[in-house]
Specification:
The complex is a heterodimer of chains A (237) and B (640). Chain A has 237 residues and is α/β, with parallel strands linked by helices. Helix content of chain A is 35%, strand content 28%. Chain A is globular. In chain A, 46% of the residues are buried. Chain B has 25 helices and 6 strands. The chains are: A alpha/beta (237), B mainly alpha (640). Chains A and B meet through helix 2 and helix 3 of A and helix 6 and helix 7 of B. Chain A: Residues 6-237 form the ABC transporter domain.
Chain lengths: 237, 640
Amino acid sequence: MQETILEVNGLNAFYGRAHILFDVGLKVRKGEVVALMGRNGAGKSTTMKAIMGMLSRTQGEISFMGNPIAKSAPHVISKMGMGFVPEDRRVFTDLTVLENLEVGSQSEREGAPHWTAEKLFELFPNLGEMPHRPGGNMSGGEQQMLTVSRTLMGNPYLVLLDEPSEGVAPVIVEQMANMIMALKKQGLTILLSEQNLQFADLVCDRAYVLENGHVRFEGTMEELAANDDVRRNYLSV
Amino acid sequence: MTLSGLLVQLLNGLVDASSLFLVASGLSLIFGVTRIMNFAHGSFYMLGVYVAYTFVSHMGESVGGFWVAIILSSLVVALLGALIEIVILRRVYRAPELFQLLATFSLVLILQDLALFIWGPEDLFGPRAPGLTGSIEILGRNFPQYNLVMIVIGPAVLGILWLLLNKTRWGVLIRAATQDREMVSTLGVNQAWLFTSVFALGCFLAGLGGALQEPRIPANLALDLESIGTAFVVVVVGGMGSIPGAFLAALLIAEVKALCIALGTLHIFGIDFPMSKMTLVAEFLIMAIILVIRPWGLLGKPQAAARNDHSAEPPLRPSLPIFKWCTAALVLALLLVPVFEETFPYAQIILVEIFIAVLFAASLHFVMGPGGMHSFGHAAYFGLGAYGAAILVVTWKLPMELALVAGPLLAVLGALVFGWFSVRLSGVYLAMLTFAFAQIVWSIVYQWDDVTGGSNGIFGVWPSDWLSSTTALYYLTLSIMLAGILILRRILFAPFGLAIRAARDSDLRADAIGVDVKRVQWVAFVVAGLFGGIAGAIYVFSKGGISPEAIGVGRSIDGLVMVLLGGVQTLFGPIVGASIFTWLHDSVARETDYWKAVLGMIILLIVLLFPAGIVGTLSHLWHWVKHHILLQTKKEEASK
């Protein structure tokens, strides 16, 4: 079995006085693609933001490659080799494609796939056709590719990928699935938040199911497929 | 006017545009990335002039020495800026906007006293630039060579900044951070150092702008507020965060001013319009117009709201009976003060000053606390009320009683006009616009000699005979202050007061339940203006006159400090804040030449340590103690 790259224990998170996450625990091993599933508002994005150090009030333990990061700032966590792709994309609209990539670029990291703009343009030929276009003048799908590419420019070991299939055309969803499988082949580890069970089935090894900030299920995709209760109670709309 | 005269004025406009641009570009850059509107930017400009004075005096005899001295001065200012950013500003990035503005304003006060301490109060005339002391002839008129250099420097700096922002990794990061700071940090960029570097660069530009003025103007202590007013206008007109916008705006404003001067006095319909005196008003008029038709400026973009963690304002609580009794006792004590006139001869005079401050602070609190509109120009209404009353008494020979009622109506008129514009904006933009309006009022008062007495002001405004004794004036002021506070308080608990607070907490939701938000805010603005005006009107009679200094930006800031010192979320706060502030001012200012630095430190202390103010902090403490004692007793009861 591969070594654990990310481990979260007893994670609680708050927005102001509202308690959002309750003792969330999860593990991601090197080379895995793990799904974080649940309905809207279940706490998927909050979990990712908490791991990335973006929330001002959290409690619990988070360790990344053996180092505690629960108290670290986002830029420190990023420098350790964790990438984050936000669900609302947050492309820099005033910056060109190449400039967006420049913001994300970090030096090469041993044991992680090394990315350059050229390699990313091979992965996403659409982007390669518009290196000087401002991020604001791109379609939703193109922005989605750009935001993933921007994070990959940091040569991360692990990427937190927040709902890449949300709000993009079906043809893009397919491209996203292909991309995730391609990234996995290169040795990248991914924690993927997803509502779409079919999508997760296609690319993930294991899944955690969240509901109201609690982890309700953890297991392989086969176990999830076999568990009607969990799917009915926590996933289906 | 001749063609050559016009041409030289237009060239002068280009010179001014360059120096304006240097200061404004730094301000815009800093705002774009840190979202802090740096009031102290003018102070860095002023320090640039002073430091350059010292350096050029020592080493500026050769051409090379002069330019090295200029660059060195700018670097010193940049270094100071970086230090201040690290020590102070890093602590306020997550604070509410109002506190950020105040923190930087406290720096204005501290830096001004620092300059006073180092260089003294006299104007300092520095040496001129070697090799550029002559002038060239343009259409028969002399034009200084140094000014030609100035004309070139503006566009040159614009070009360098453009290269820096577009062709370097640092510049790309800066532009990314201008749009989304949080995202930049999740991509592995340490925001803290990015902010420090931007702030240092901004201060370098301000310092350079100042240093380049060294051969042209004397170093003096008024440069900071003079330049910050105009720099704000340039940034707002150009679009916050846009460097080319700042350049365009600097050009527009400088040339409009130059035209005003070139036109001289115009005769329209038999009335003289002294256009050359319109220069101060012109820039603020341009800004008001731009803000209304294109609120994000010429080349700016509508800004996304800054991602601050604002805690919701707690609801206002009706007073407890014990508090009401304490207030009654306090009022009784105040009524008895004149009885002890012989023991405390000075008490009534300082108390009158305090009462006026309390009414002024309460009216400002009304619009910024419950109203949620942070006015940085409340002095305008104080000033309009004061000048209204003074003009009625001195020029129109009306009795005091009538002037006291009619004077504040001028403030109401001002609030009606300014408020109509102001409520259309929010946040920093609203603060800037109110600031601009106050500057307009101040400029008009300062320059309209025939009516306002110009820089001398109006004196000899004394109360009617039956009110002329200290004690009579004391009771009059006390009763007006009490009435004012009770009325303001009554309004806040009336349905209209609920609407004001609803509009503050969520304008969309308030709109959805049928509150006409803009109208309610407008009315609140006018009410605050009225009571600010009343405070101004009594002030005139208590002092026997009024001058422009008394209605300048200093008074607006004093008001803000009073409100914050007491606590912006409590009704009693401004009363306590105004009292303590006035008493402090009275006792400390007499002891030291550096009252401003003391005031600046007080502001910093509030902002960094007691953001809830005195009353707010005490109130939190009281509720905390009550809560814990209650818990304790409940536990004890349960254990029984």
